[in-house]
Amino acid sequence: MNNSELKQVLDANIKLSRQNKLPLAKLLTIAESLQSSGMAEDALQLYEVWTANTTDDNKSLAMFNHGSLLQSTGKTTEAENIYRACLAQRPFFAQPCINLGLIQERRGEREQAIATWSQLLSAQAAGVEVPVDMKVATWNHVGRVREDLKQYQLAEVALTKSLALKPDQAGVIQHWVHIRQKACDWPVYQPLPGISANQMLMATSPLAMLAYSEDPVQQLLTAHAFVGRTYSFKEDHLCQGRVYQHAKKRIGYLSGDLCVHAVGLLLAELLEGHDRSKYEIYAYDFSLEDGTPHRQRLKKAIDNIRFVHALTDRQIAEVVVFDEIDVLIDLHGLSAGARPGIFALHPAPLQGTYLGFIGTTGMPWFDFVVTDGQAFPAALEPYFAEKPLRLSSSFIPLTPDVDQPLTVNRAQYGLPEDSFVMAAFGNSYKFTPELFSVWLDLVNEIPNAVLWLVDDNPATTANLQAFIYRHGASMKKIVFTPRAHYEEYKQRLKLADVFLDTFPYNCGSTTNNVVQAGLPMVTLYGKTMVSRMGLSILSSMDLGQYCTDNMVDYKQRVKDIAGLSVKDTSALREKIRLASMKPSRLSQELEDLIEQLMEKN
To answer: CA–CA separation, 182 vs 17, rounded Å?
Structure first.
């Protein structure tokens, strides 16, 4: 039927609805026809009239459809009202209950959303059976939001219940594992009914595996498994056969992290340092507008910025082709917010990854990864889908910072003035029981040592405290401090005597802040690129003596720093400070490597 005919049908059925003569099945069919013909407003009118006049016992089904259509057209307040009315009539109706919770979540009312979903999960106690797939979906929503709130123990409980109902959920297993990592709930892998050890390992996310294993083979397998189950892109070659004649080469960066983010904080000088006589810099940006001076600085460092938040992968790829980009660099890899579907369409002749994910993506449409010789030895090449572009210095940009006067002191954080403060401010999911045990050994073996940790959330802190107790370290020598905003965090680093790097996932952007603070760091390196970031940075500063490949030497290097005289400590800090201020040639080196790659292709 055309729209004119549908309009006549609508008028007739609105009349029948007012008379309570339109059967439910026919209502649903007509409403669907209206929606598929682009007449959503007419469908909404029909639902409204029908529900106002019907006496059908299954009225709640039409009410749910009405609410769903309101929600899909952006009328969330009206949708919420319909869902509430629907649930008043049928309290344990799963779909409107789930959708109502999602509306509350998007409004920022996350605890209310959990309460709404919990009502549905209490149905069995009320003698009402909810379909298994609906219970699974509900537990997954609860777990996801609990994880966002850093309520890791409760998140794990929710996902465990979901997996008990349906074990074959790779995405849920993935979150379950990473939640335990973030909570420092060791050992991370624990048996679950109906899930084999192999399933659990293969469902682990690439990010979690970077922090769990230094085996490059395992990281490659994990990346392939993740890409295979997560993405189903149809590959295309949008730029094939195109020959560009523009005078300057065009480099495009794609990111959702051009803001105060670990990646964005490293990029300003790199972007500013590109030779504008030879290159035009583009950005395809879907970042958070955080309103910070750093965000403004990044935007000013880009010649042509395209805000692509609302565009599909193909639309963004088409913009890249229109802009005639020669080299497109992804700043996400397999990290949160990644848009790999853009690269599967090959909108640029050369495509590579940098900074966002320090491992292989396992994706065939990336030609290169930006790295360096220390971080990426030749032995790693078989385990990367991307070919290495090796810089001569560290691939992690060291960015000088404005030297701010110290505005904090040890006393306000409960740090003794005469103590040897060992700061370990890396993300908790990068902690392992093996390395944490070494840190606690250092607390015991260095008489005046204090271990300074971040009190990130109650679950993680409680698990670390329990581990400390079992290890036999004195809780009096462990200081937990709540998270701080970025500027205070940088000030805190200046109060420490040494920074303890994590392993097998070294700190990256954090290490840049450590260097800015003039703070010595000890790092442990392994076989993977992510486990060699500290080696890469310290070697570039001629501080290789604080890099080691074993935990015995790691402990000794920390003790060496603890044993330095006041004069030698000052000299070491000055060396670090001067290294952080050294002019960077990273932009020029990257350009040279790109030129060489373009000549080969």
So the answer is: 55
